[in-house]
Structure formats: structure tokens, C-alpha cells
Model the fold of this input.
Amino acid sequence: MMNKLITLQSRPQGLPTDETFAVKEAPVRQPEENEVVVKSIYLSVDPYMRGRMSAAKSYVEPYRIGEVIEGGGVGEVVESRSEQFKPGDKVLGMLNWQLYSVHNGSQLRKVDDQVAPLSAYLGVIGMTGLTAYFGLMDIGRPKAGETVVVSGAAGAVGSIVGQIAKIQGARVVGIAGSEEKTKWLTEQLGFDAAINYKEEADLSAAVGQACPQGVDVYFDNVGGAVTDAVMNHLNDYARIPLCGSISAYNDASGKSDIGPRPYVKLIKTRSLMKGFVLGEYMDRLPEGAKALGQWLSEGKLRYEETIFEGFDRMPEAFMELFNGSNIGKMLVKVD
Amino acid sequence: MMNKLITLQSRPQGLPTDETFAVKEAPVRQPEENEVVVKSIYLSVDPYMRGRMSAAKSYVEPYRIGEVIEGGGVGEVVESRSEQFKPGDKVLGMLNWQLYSVHNGSQLRKVDDQVAPLSAYLGVIGMTGLTAYFGLMDIGRPKAGETVVVSGAAGAVGSIVGQIAKIQGARVVGIAGSEEKTKWLTEQLGFDAAINYKEEADLSAAVGQACPQGVDVYFDNVGGAVTDAVMNHLNDYARIPLCGSISAYNDASGKSDIGPRPYVKLIKTRSLMKGFVLGEYMDRLPEGAKALGQWLSEGKLRYEETIFEGFDRMPEAFMELFNGSNIGKMLVKVD
Done:
């Protein structure tokens, strides 16, 4: 069986390009005792992967040049030497950017497409939904009646953050980059207001107008000028979960991430800001999965996916994340 | 009895000047039932007062034009219509920038100059010591063996922060603005290293060299370029109590507080940053006072004071805070 995989050919300076990636073919190795072979069905592309393409130290190891790009996926067991899995089982795991992968069974989790569509295990009830849940509930801690602002609000994480905040009784304002997105937030997801940051000459004033009671929680996925604008409207004791800073990820020089320092504002409002990743909540995943699954089954959570068809389009799908072309979770359906 | 008081004449743009203040005279009003008249002995000048001279919203009300400048002090009861106080009692309270003040007894706390010198109730065992204690212990949470960096390290708060961190078993690095200060930190207070930021061409490299294991706690009193340099060396899960940002307080335009945004660094290290003021810990003051008093009596805490003599020098003493001319707590001895 021939495998196809996408490797990191070179570390990007600025935006990734076609030069960043290489497609390789190699035979799938035979599974050993307790191992299974999985055929990829959906593979995930996520903004955090940009960080791993750089050599800089971060919370996960950088990808290595010439090796397959790591990432989550959902697939089907096609060969098994493990007692826990049989061919046909659907599984979630680090399938990486490849058609087939060989795993020790302990690294995989069985998923049930009767409970939720397979793709949802990568999104609303998977990594991005759980990231939204823990960042908002553990750091943001919204209370009924408070105002929650979410940047990157139409993305896989932001769209879930806003809906969870609504479930908590908060007033929710989303910031996104197109009218299609802001309409989706207010008309489909129940956000109280949404701002298209690309159309606002004075973004800070727009945030002030959308948040007449100020901002109690700011869930940040983008950083940069959007965050500068929100920081002008913090209420006392605001909480700011820092989930992502996508505006800065492709900055090769580091120089464009210059802006107002937030320190005085944080002191004056006695606010809390914390960077986080889902990995910090490994021992609480069942709690998050249970809550998300229940809200989903009760119809309280809606989600959207942007799905590119065809394995070869993985680099394209990944690069489109930085053009903001996705609504909801960005996925590649392998074939 | 004639009183002398210093009022806010105009809101400063940038550094306060003589125009900021006016000296007035007025008779001391007669105490009513339960009131006492206090003669000021030591009055406190603190960087946070700069914030109250601006009209902008913050955690305390702005000072009002034409009214006495509010602040803490230690004095002696000279007339009493309260059963709780008798003439000669030494008291701590909001005596404000004036020779005499009239108080309801409930607003004052008796202090004992046999337990500690009167001036210490404004510093090491008073507001600045307690600020150091709660910011470090509640937000910074240093563990033995960790590296704690303190900016404004020779100031009233910073010098106590570093010593408490040493008591907790941390390695402590101070950043201050003169060789006299850095020598005092390492030779008198037991800091492991100290950096004179005015003499470093590459401050970030100097921090890196002084912190070979990275920075676990950064207690920030100054903000600006000093903070930028420290942020390059955060360890995973660093904690950053934001106590002050003196480098930005006198910036009239707001434009000079532009620098590297910290968001990506906070995410990569999953660090926590929180602005705080002592007022958040009102219900825990006895805990802090007990710990500070005990360490002081055990000889584990040393402190310095810079004392200007003469009530008329209050504005000068206040303005000197921003020149960095004080070591330890800045006070005015009234006469």
C-alpha cells in the first residue's frame, strides 16, 4: 500500500507558500503487534501549526524539516493487530498530513458517527470546541449580564466561545473580518452584536458602541490592532484568555507586532490576562466533552465547517486560514 | 489653629511641575463629637498619586482641582472628642497633604512606635510593604529555586518584593536605575543579581545573562522598555504581577507607551499577567501585616527610606519619585 504524505520542506519566512511543503510517497509500513493502520478521512488544519513551522521555542516542539506535518484527524481502521480495534472502526488521533498512518492503539480514541458527524470530533466537540470551553470557562469566567467580546469570532474556536458565553447568560459581541461572517454570528449563532473590523475606520469607537457597558471578558484569537481596540474598553477586573494571535503569526521580522503596551490598562482595571493551550486541561477533558456534547444535543450549539476536498489541498486549506476565508472549522476531506 | 494644605491647582500634562500644586492656608475646623484632630508627622508620596492627578477613570477617583491632595500619613492626636483616642496617640490614616486633619475616629488606626518606627507604618509594614506581599504571594507565587525578577527594585515596593522572594527560596534579580541602587540590592538586601538598566546597551541580553534559567515571576513596577526586555525571557507558566508602570505615568500623549505587544509571548509560555492594587486584599491585610512584622522582627527584612524634611517640600519629594532619586520609601517629615 503506497502512502502519500506532506512534509515541511522549509521554514516559512512570513506567510507559508508552496515552497514550505513537499509531497512524498512511501510504502505504508506493516503494523506490528498492537498496532493498527488508519486511513485518513478528515484532517485538521489549525492556525497554531504556523508556530510549529518556525524553529522558535514554544509550547510544542517545532516540526522537523523533511518530516510529515503533525496534526489531528479522524479516520478508519483498515488493518488491525490490536485487540481493541477492528477494521471499519472510526478513530480520532494524530493522523498527521498523510493518507495512512500506523499507530499503537493506545494513541487512538474510537469515535461514533451515530453520536455526531465524524468531522465534529475535530471541531465543536473536539480540539477547538474544548479550547473554547476551557479558555472561556476557566479563565474568562463569564457571569450572567456581563459583556463578552470574542475576536476571530467566526473561527472554529471563536464561534463556540460566543455561543457558550450566551449559554452562560452573557451579552456577546463578536469581531470578524467580513459581512458574511458578522451576519452569520448575529443571525445564526445568536451573538448580540458583531463588528466587521475591516470596515471600521475607528475600531475602538466601534467596540465602545457595541459594548455600552464595557468589556468584562475578552477572548482573544487574533492579537494586534483588534486587541488594541478592545483593550480601551476593559471594565474593572476584566478577564482576558489569550488563545491565539493570528495577526502576528506570519510576521517574519517581529517588527510589525508593535503597538500600545497594555500594562497601564491592566493595572487601572486590575484585569487578568492569561495565555493558555488545551494541553493544560488534559485532566478535565471529560468535563468539557460532556458539556459540549450535551449543548450540541440540546440544539444550543451550532457549528459550521469549511471543508476542502482532496488530500492535495491541505497546504492550500492551511494557507487560507490566514486569509480568513473559513467560517467555522477548517478541514480537509481526504477524498 | 491655622492649617496649611497643598491642593491640586491644575492637571499636569506630562511631568508634574510647580504649576500643578498650590499651597493654601485655612483655619483647622473644630472637631465634632467622635472626631479628633491629628497633626501630621510623616506624609507619604507615592507614584500612584500621579494617576489621580489625571482626569481619566482608574481604580480610584481623580483628585479634584482646588482640593487637598489625598494620601496616607502618620501623625499625633492633638485634640480628641473620641473616647478611642487621647492627645499624644500616634495614628495612621489618610492625613492628606496638610499639617492638620480632622477625622472620625473610625478612619484612623493607632500605631505603636515601640513596635516599629512611625515611618515604617507607611512603608515596610504599611501600604508599600503590603502591596509587595500580596502581589508577590498571591499572583507571583514564587517557589523555591525559581527565578524572580523585580523592576523598580530599589523602590519602596520592589525592595520588599525581592526580599520576600528570597525568604521563599527564590533566586532574585533586581532591575534599578543607578549603581548605588544595584549595589544596595546585592550587598545589603541579598539580591542574587541586579541590573542597572541605564547602563545596558542591550537590556534584554543583560536580563538573559542574569537569569540563565529564565524568568518564572516578573513583578513589574515600571513597564515600558524594561518590561519589554524581561518579557523575552519568560519561562513556561510565568506569573507577572503588574503593580505599576511608572515609565508611562507622565506621558501626556500616550504615544510613547508603544512597544512590542506581549500577546504571542504570553500564549507561547502560557503565562499569567494581572494588574492589582492593595485594595483587592482588604480582607487579608492582617495576614500580610503579621508576616511582614514577623520577618522585620527576625531581621529578615531590611528597608531604607528617603526622607525630605519640611512640609513645603511635598511637591518636590513627589516629583523626585519620577527622577528615581529615592532609595526605598519616599517620605516627607513634616517639621
